[in-house]
Amino acid sequence: MSCPIYILLVFLCFFNISKAQGVFKIDEGKYKFDLSFQSVNDLVVIPLEINGVELTFLLDTGVESSIIFSLEEKDSLNVKNATDILLRGWGEGKAITAIKSTGNTVRVGTASHSDFTVYIVYDHDISLSNRLGLPIHGIIGYDFFKDFVVEFSYTKERLIAYNIDSYVYKKCRRCDDFDLVFHKNKPYIKALVSIENKGFLPMDLLIDSGSGDALWIFEAPDLGIEIPDENFEDFLGFGMGGSVYGKRARVNNLKLGKFQLDGVTASFPDTLYFAGVSTYKSRNGSLGFQVLKRFTSTFDYKNKRLRLKPNKNFREPFEYDMSGIVLAHEGYTIVKDFENNNSPVFSESEDAFKGVVVYKSYSKVKFKLEPQYIIAEVRPNSPAALAGLKVGDLVETINKKAAYNYELSQISKMFSSGEGKTIKLKIKRNGVLLDIRFELKRVL
């Protein structure tokens, strides 16, 4: 089951970037640490501290040795040694201005780094928080992975980071080990992909945990890599340069060593979104979270090694969103909440009633802020589009339940499973409430 919010953090080409100095070190006397993470819309979200400030970051194998984040106030982190640079990524937008800051202190779990380079973006248009429904302050990639052997358990939402020199590989019959190739500090894996049953094609794929998709594949007819006849146009994701569009389809099979996955969802981005962006010349696409979550994975960047072990998600079918809409967080609404209370009171008046327990009932009105959700994307000819939903519609209720009672990830799962299930929405458009009803439909 895949979610309909495909946040693709493909920061492929940084201008004027130099390598960060120093390394992460686990606190003295320890050789590993455990860290719980959240899986939010098929992305890994971890707590992280910079210069004493607690933040929330995406942990993404697909980014270089840098951190990029958006903040409200420039002075909130007390950044050091700041210089202006340009950053460029996939999407419709142009290169943007960012600030490079060195000498920062970063802490993850029980490990710390005392000379960390930070790239700060003060452009609210590229904020990811509204697409994920929780504050996302940045992204960390190679700078974390290079200093540890990292074991991911996606089913338990936990990772264990080991000192590289103390890690020992255990015998594992169900596992398979892969050699990794690195280009600009990003890991690539070799895979075999069968498209429309025309035989297996060898592909070099970027391992990109920051992609909510299963596969991204770059069309290359001269290599036999063509978009399947059964496909549909769609919004693919939101990169640093803006929205990315292309076609979605399925490939028959994906082989990773001794493992084979069938009926895998695959996105084929339009070439205009990565024109002029430097990348690995042999790259044929990306392998994303929808594949990775089917394994317990061990990343060993120093030894250029990846170990995969199937987990309980391995046989789970690959599915696209069945509604045709992408929701985004859009500010807050004030909600009136009534708190009822029956309090026991001992009577102190009149002899006949002294010592008798009576109950005093009262209602207390509270006001609180709850998230609002807006429709950010509508897929043409989808159930939602045919029912009349439009970009900008404010979602008030989902199946007669206030929308703010759901997290975005819960809504995504609801819209990605149960073909034929009826979805009832109450939306507000130009101040007018409308009732919309449609049925989920499997798109491919």
From TrEMBL:
Q: Which InterPro entries match?
A: PDZ (IPR001478), PDZ_6 (IPR041489), PDZ_sf (IPR036034), Peptidase_A2_cat (IPR001995), Peptidase_aspartic_dom_sf (IPR021109)
Q: Which residues form the Peptidase A2 domain?
A: 55-91
Q: Does the keyword Hydrolase apply?
A: yes
Gene Ontology molecular function: aspartic-type endopeptidase activity
Q: Provide this UniProt record's keywords sorted from A to Z.
A: Hydrolase
Q: Which Gene3D superfamilies match?
A: 2.30.42.10, Acid Proteases (2.40.70.10)
Q: Which GO terms describe its biological process?
A: proteolysis
Spell out the SUPFAM superfamilies in the cross-references: Acid proteases, PDZ domain-like
Descriptive protein name: PDZ domain-containing protein
Traced from the root, the source organism's taxonomic lineage reads: Bacteria, Pseudomonadati, Bacteroidota, Flavobacteriia, Flavobacteriales
